[in-house]
Amino acid sequence: MKRDPICGMTVNPATALHAERDGETHFFCGDDCLQQFLNASAASQRAGPCVIVIFGASGDLTKRKLLPALCNLVAGGLLSEDFAIIGVGRTEWSDNDFRQQMREAIAEFATQKMDPALWTNIEQRLRYCSGSYTDPETYQRLSTMLEESNAKQHTSGNALFYLSVPPISFAPIAQQLHASGLLKEVPPVWRRLVIEKPFGHDLASARELNATLSASLAESQIFRIDHYLGKETAQNLLVFRLGNSMIEPVWNRTFIDHVEITAAESIGIEGRAAFYETAGAFRDMMQTHMLMLLALITMEPPASLSGEAVRNEKAKLLEAIRIPKPEDVMRDTVRGQYGPGEIAGKPIDGYAEEPGVSLGSTVETFAAAKLWIDNWRWAGVPFYLRTGKRLARRVTEIVVHFKSPPLSLFGGTECSPLGPNLLIMHIQPEEGITLQMRAKTPGPTIHTQAVTLDFDYSQFGKTPPTTGYEKLLYDAITGDGTLFHRSDMVEAAWKIADPILSTWASNPRKHLPIYAPGTWGPSNADQLLADDGQWWTA
Ligand code: BG6
Hints:
Number of strands: 21
Largest sheet: 9 strands, mixed
Strand content: 15-25%
CATH architecture of the largest domain: 2-Layer Sandwich
Radius of gyration: 25 Å
Helix content: 25-40%
Number of domains: 3
CATH topology of the largest domain: Dihydrodipicolinate Reductase, domain 2
Bound molecules: 6-O-phosphono-beta-D-glucopyranose
Number of helices: 14
CATH class of the largest domain: Alpha Beta
Shape: globular
Distance between the termini: 41 Å
């Protein structure tokens, strides 16, 4: 039995809620005590004062993710008590309209029960600045509001500008913020800019965007956000690799045969045709989230956990991915588009029928690729990546296939063939890690069977549901860039994407199979692995 550190009650560790602090596990009688404990822990990690300025504040992301995430940070005691939130948008709203909109958004999208007193505190710190993103007057009004927040909420002049706007507005906003002096840092005052993907449309436009941004800001002020890296399970990848001494020695070409990364979605484009028509599955998921997951699991151990040390290793890894030639693209990549069909008896429109999709669109909703990393650790190990919409189920996972034992010692009449060990890192919706090994089944003769050693995130106990943006917002406010993309990482990822996209673009209809919704995509994707004697695990 253990004692609850808050109320002193005796609790049973087998069933009690628990939380870690300084390497020690503490057990609690219920939610209230756990929350008090977490709040006390958070107080020591509370971010400094600042104003969070959200461009595109009338959009979906603000309502669904950003505001609920900020509320969770406030509730968890991780945001300074001296904060303010200013929404900027083209919609003509007053402060009160904005507050009303956000109140409704919180009622609908908050992931945790909102304490009314807490909401009242947050609501009175919300302001709204309406205007065009290219009009200097918008920035003058914003500047005045920042000064007012400074005076009223004691935000110390610090500001985080979050661009939740279409990419076409990234550069104009950065330029206007710069021109109006709003990006100027006079230490200890800081000013930072968070931008959402896509970071460019290809290598040339990414370089242009990086150049425009760097004319207005230092790289240390730019936070290119990737919500995938905010997922708990994605953050665990490095900890799992580098925090367990039995993993790293086998994490290389000598022991690993190949790796699969799947990010499958069962949903379609959800009314986002305008964006998706310019993106497609490769730009939307592969060039961003999936290459970054690949970098996380394959990069060399950093010298420290500082943002720069981690990002240096990621950038080095991305630079080592072999840039495919057109013939490699034709052989080693697959794309497809979902056609009409049914999922669970419900009729589903094909991509081509989705509202807003252009007639005869050749945009891919599925992409798969075999990639190689030309460095000492990974030479000769294929990495198979696939992503798609309207697939059989929602699953993101990384499957590491180890090499088979060197000698088939149990080969012979009575024995099942020995399969390789698999390590499956479940990113979502299941969150955990499975290690698949072989064991002898009971009985007088030797038969082997795959058995699994499982770790499920729920073993950490009940954790309050989040939006996935809390960690990223907190890191941006505290100036930790570890999980954000640096300009060289973005450009390295485009160097791999560009030849694939341009080869596809020059053969728009060729090899664009239509796949049925609710399946695992075009059969060529299975063939890609079958040609190597492999198959997708999911
Ligand atoms: C976004 C893509 O970045 O990630 C979407 O633009 C995709 O198309 C989404 O649906 C998937 O994110 P998650 O967290 O739901 O897997």
